[in-house]
Amino acid sequence: MDTLTPAEVAQLLGTSPNRVRQLLRDRKLMAVPGSGNGKIPAAFVQDGAVLKHLPGLLTVLRDGGFSDEDAFDWLFREDESLPGTPVQALRDDRHTEVTRRAQALAF
Known about the structure:
- By secondary structure, the protein is mostly helical.
- The chain has six helices and four strands.
- It has helices spanning 6-13, 17-25, 54-63, 68-76, 86-91, 95-104; strands at residues 3-4, 40-41, 45-46, 49-50.
- 25% of the residues are buried.
């Protein structure tokens, strides 16, 4: 998985690294768990913006009882029913399917 620093993400988004760190604090963006917000998956940025439905999906997962580690693992785990990973489905604008699966997994 390709990762980016907050400064690299800021450059792609046309904003400051501080704004990227704020997105991480507000849980609208997620870094690799255990990286201290130093590694953000490149897949979370598309066309100069945070992946469109990622912030809402992160909220659904958190509200469903997922820890950051569990949510991250789920986002990048292959799912034969999608097919591919939930992140890839988001990138392909299939967010409704991904959100439904996340809601169904809530515990």
